[in-house]
Amino acid sequence: MNTPIAIGQHLFAGFAGTRVPEDFAHLVHEHHIGNIVLFAHNVESAPQLKTLCAQLRALVKEATGVIPFIAIDQEGGIVSRLGEDAAVVPSAMAVAATNDPDSAYQAGLITGTELRAMGINFDLAPVLDVNSNPDNPVIGVRSYGQDPARVSAYAIAMMRGLAEGGVLSCGKHFPGHGDTAVDSHVGLPVVDKALDALEACELVPFRAAIQAGLPAVMSSHILFSQLEPDKLPATMSRRIMTGLIKGQLGFDGLVLSDCMMMGAIADHYGTVNGMAAALKAGVDMVFASHRAELAGQAAQAIAQALASGEMDQAEFAASTDKILRYKAQVDRLSTPDIACVGSPQHRQAVARLYERSLTAVQMPACGLPPLGESPLFIACPPWQVTPASSAVRGPASFAEHMQAALGGGMALMPADPDDAQIDALAKGAAGHSCLIVGTYNGHLRPGQLRLVKALGRLGLPMICIALRNPYDLAHLPPHAAGIAAYGANAGVMAALQRLLRGEISAPGVLPIQLAK
Length: 516
Known about the structure:
Elements: H1 3-8, E1 11-13, H2 22-31, E2 35-38, H3 46-64, E3 69-72, H4 92-97, H5 101-118, E4 122-123, H6 148-165, E5 168-169, E6 171-174, E7 190-191, H7 195-200, H8 203-211, E8 216-219, E9 223-224, H9 238-248, E10 254-259, H10 263-266, H11 271-281, E11 285-288, H12 292-308, H13 313-331, H14 344-357, E12 359-362, E13 375-379, H15 398-406, E14 409-412, H16 419-429, E15 434-439, H17 447-456, E16 462-466, E17 481-484, H18 490-501
Parallel strand pairs: 1-2, 1-11, 2-3, 3-4, 4-5, 6-8, 7-9, 8-10, 10-11, 13-14, 13-15, 15-16, 16-17
Antiparallel strand pairs: 12-17
Helix pairs in contact: 2-3, 2-12, 5-6, 5-14, 6-8, 11-12, 14-18, 15-18, 16-17
């Protein structure tokens, strides 16, 4: 394989829109870009996505002679790029709340089967991060929990389901993004932990998944100051991306970067320089997820580094061969009929997962309060907590969904209400038969939790539902019921409607501990 085409095998690029833009096709041909990453803005429907993937496959094969990896972040729940015609499984923490690792296998199998049917062959999941820091703004419910053994068991089960569904999986974000209070999409997190501390927590799921045959790992853009004294993020650190994961953990699969356009890289090192540096560090494939021209510039920088000897040619060739082996492997797998996407069987199985995940964190002795004749539903409008999350689709909040389905009144609160707004909402709540409050990462937006306490002082029957991280439920009014829902998508809303009607219980087991 000639050098330009080989270089292209190491690059992922993305584009805007639901059709292949002419300028993107030109860049693929010019720089032999070998792999594609898709996002929600590329997805209109299952048939459209299948057509798009077929066009992308033909485009890349014509430009490089090799099929592309077509990748997507379909973790489930809050990180889901597929549309409503697909069966979107719950977030990882919700799946773990079912207290049954087979739930993760089923989630992986359904997701993998549907992705494969639409032409996607690489799912950038599961998350192997241990969410040990409640203030983590980017992981939270994307993690299976705070216990490394639990995370290992559920992530491996999902990995196996994805494989049986016909797609490669990718464990992320090595060596662990669970103990950060900074989102690497917008800043550069620092984790000041020694290797033995990482071995006791963050690295446990990675070791277990590698031993179970994990095909790919994604790096994190985090400074691990005790592992890398040269102040390089893990993605650009040879000590971490070669010495630790390949040497000490014995991983011989594909090593992928997280997107190199994220703030942690772009703002501190530059995307193009970072892409070349990551490959020198031992990463096999790098992402320019939203601007393909950056992948083209990286191709030129990589070619110069190879020609000058700055990048080891033999190591690079071995990495290229590894990529080609995995492409051949995934290309041999059969493709199911597109009729499986969003099929009644898949939707029923996913609905059961959502219902089994609902977790009663606090419950009055008399059980879940009845809604009564005039319930009031309160929530903030939908908002995107982190760029990693799915874009908000549709204007309806939890309060609007529930009012439409169950009647009563509704009120919207800001994401972080101030004292005056809290007082106004509390006054408006007086006289209702039951107050149902949907919080959304209120532990990071404390005005929401101050509102919950103010409403609690009214003494009315009350239900507090955590629609993202369950840490919101740590300090509820004593008489209030607390339910962890782990998300706010259509699957969660349907399950909550059944719960509030009294048709189902909340049998889940909380995968994290709440500080009391």
